[in-house]
Each structure stands twice: as structure tokens, then as C-alpha cells.
Amino acid sequence: MVAATTKRFLKDYPEALIGGFGAVFVGAGVSMGAGYPSWASLLTEVGEELGVQSGELHDLAALAQWSIQENGSATQVRNVIKEKIGVEHPVPESLEIISRLPVKFIWTTNYDRLVERAFGSVNRPIDTVSGAADLALRATPGASRLFKMHGSIERLDDVVISTEDYELYRSKRGAFLPLLQAHLSSMSMLFLGISFTDPNIRHVLSLIRESFTSAPPEHFAIVRPPQREDYKTEAEFEARSTQHKLWSRDLKRYGLVVVEIDDYAEVPELLRQVERRVAARRVWVSGSWPPEAGDDIARVYGVAQAVGKLIGDRGQDLVSGAGLVVGSASIAGFLDALRSSGGWDLERRLIARPFPQPIPGAAPDRAQWTALRAELARIAGVVVFIGGMKIDPGADSAIVAGGVLDEFKAAKAADCFVIPIGSTGGAAAQISDSLIGSTIDATGRSAMRPTDEELTELARADISAAEIVKLVSSILTRIDKRA
Question: What positions does the domain NAD(+) hydrolase ThsA Sir2/TIR-associating SLOG occupy (predicted)?
């Protein structure tokens, strides 16, 4: 049975992301899961030189401070960080999913480059802010921002690790604090990889507590309670469990809703559910129709425009490859809906990836088009197919657009819900015929297509644009409820 807090997280956090006010805080547990050492492991060698076992000391910042005092500099501590954190471990799946979500702000106390590498793997820009001076730099348009509030592996002379670094944080890195507090007051923050044994988390929680008193905003923390197999003795397990329960309750003071998991392997699936729920609010209208193809253009344009308006009226986001006639018509309808409601939030709600067209006589860049189709399918959770025709240069006549069929394949590969409007002909009709009676689920939580009855109705030759909109609206409502 799914816990109430998990249900709450899967409902409220995707809504925050869709609304543009979802943020993420990446804790040490994420880096440890990727293969990087914990604080205690990182400073084991340093402690041994001082005659102190790091496992016996909970104030690891003090251990680093003592090493600096004994050696006269932070060189040894920095060399240990460089050796242990400077290597590149595989990016965990949880961060790969985060890199695909509409997150604009990410915070971390980790030094490694896992987040930057995750964003780089999907060619998504991210600005790294690891020092106070970086805050003054102009943001890259369209880029997310990563705030490394305790520094980064690339700038070891400016990392926060010793007691003195924490004591002087406000004077040296204090510019981070009002920004973090602003995000905590206006956004819903998801905390990943945090635990009550992480010394950095105590620092961050104290900042939250400074900002809010009786009514902090709602944030979420995915945490794993201690498990019996983690400890050698029953007594140690019981002690850790008690501490964890008290800590989890205490997190409520900071506005954190605790989402408990039994195993860290559950985190990617939770985030995939978030991704699916965000994607379900994004509808890709795929299709094309050559202007030279005769009288049918008016009907195809009218249907595409009506569907685009429906998406806007429902408060959903439009994804478009700007295909001939269908793309421009759906965008026109979408803009009309936004204009009527007084909302011009185009930067967030209209996601367009126009396909670069070659000059006459030149071949298109097929690899680029394939990549664009895969990206559009990844972004969207629902794909509506309208028309899908093109002019055959050799015969100077209209034929089914193979590109739209390729988009159907991309949509299936990305597990999108597909809605072909067969009555508009072309590729949409072919897709509709292939789905009727197919083994692809049409009902339940795993449904990826309309029912046979709905597909047959959408393919009816005399169905009106108004009837299409009513039926598509019903299908979209069902998808929302499923999500």
C-alpha cells in the first residue's frame, strides 16, 4: 500500500514543477550512491595521522580543522578531496531523471560534478555557481542554475570543510543565504540523499529555520530509514532507528514532508513517476499537410487549430515540431486560448522544436531530425497525430509522410499515450488502423492508446471538429486521472 506521504509527494511535487516553482537539493547520499566516499570515509586518513578514528568523532569539520592546525595549511585535506572526489564515477539514474525535469534551480553541498555531467549527457545547459563571486555572473539564457553552496572540486581553495569555514560562512559565502532562503520561501524543494548523520544538512536546516517560524512552505525529503542489515547488532539498529524516527518528526518543523523508502533503488522509480506526471501535462501535436494537396487542407487546419486551443484551455503545455500546416494551426489555436484567458506564459507552456529545413535540392539532416523526434517524445507524455502527408518530389503527388510515422515510433519508444485522429487521413489514418485491435493496452494504468471504439469514432469520415475536440478532451481527462 502506498503511504499517504508518498501519494502527497506524487501529486504536489509534479504540480510544483509544472508551475515552474519546483527545486531540488542534492545531499551527500546521492554522491555516496554513485561511489564517492562519505564524510567519515573521506577523512579517515586525515584522522589516523592525528591519532583520531573518524568513526569515533561526529564533528568531522573539527577533524579537518585540527588537521589544518597541525599541518599549518589545508593542503593535506584538499589533496584528499582531490584524490577521492576528483574521479568520475557513473552518474546515478536519479540525477539523469532530474536533468530531464523542468527544474531551474538545484542546490547541493557536494563537491563533485555529478549534476553537471547529468545535464551534459542530455545537452542541457546548466550554470554552476560555486563561489560568492559567481552569483554576480549573468545567467545563460534557458540554463538551469546549480548552487554549490560548499564549493566545488574545481576550486579546492574555496571549499567549506573545516570548523572555521562554517564559522566564517556568512562573511565569505553569505551571499548564498538570502537566495537559498528566497527559494525556500517561494518554491517546493525536493531533498534527495540526506540523513541525520550528514553534518552539512544540519547547516542547511538551520538556515531554513532562520527563515520561517510557525508556517514554513512545504518541501519533500526522500529518506531511507535504518535497516536491520545495515548494523552488526540489534542494539545498534534500535538506537539508530530511534534517532531516525525522532529526526523525521523534527523535520516537520522545517516544512519537510518525509517520504520513506525501504531501499535507495526505489528513488529512480519515484522520480520516473514524477517525470511521467509532468509529461502527461504536455501534449505533442504531430502531423503535416502540404499546402498544395487540395481542399482537405481546410479541414486538417481546422482540426489542428481546435486541438491546439483545447490544450491551451485545459491548462496543458503544447509541444510542437512546427510541421507544415498542422504545426502552425495547433500553435495558432493554443495562442488563441492563452490570449482569451489573459495568460501569455509562452516561455514555459509552448515547447517548440522546429525541424531545420534544407535549401531546395539539398537533403535534410536525418540524424538531426531523428534526435529532435526523440527529444519531443521524451518531453511529451501524450502525442496527438493529425494528417501526415507530404508531396512526393518524383511524382508531384501527395503521399503519406514517413516522418510522422517515425514520430509514432519515437512516441511508442518513449511510452507516450498516442491519439491518432484517423479522420484527418495520411499517417494518422495508418496509425489508427494499426492500433485498432492491437495488443497495446487501451485501459488501466498502463494504457498507451484510446479504446478501439474511440479510435473508430475519431476515424469516422463525417466526424466534426467539435466532436473530435469533445472526445479528445475526454481521453485527456482520463489520462490526467490515471497519472
Answer: 266-478
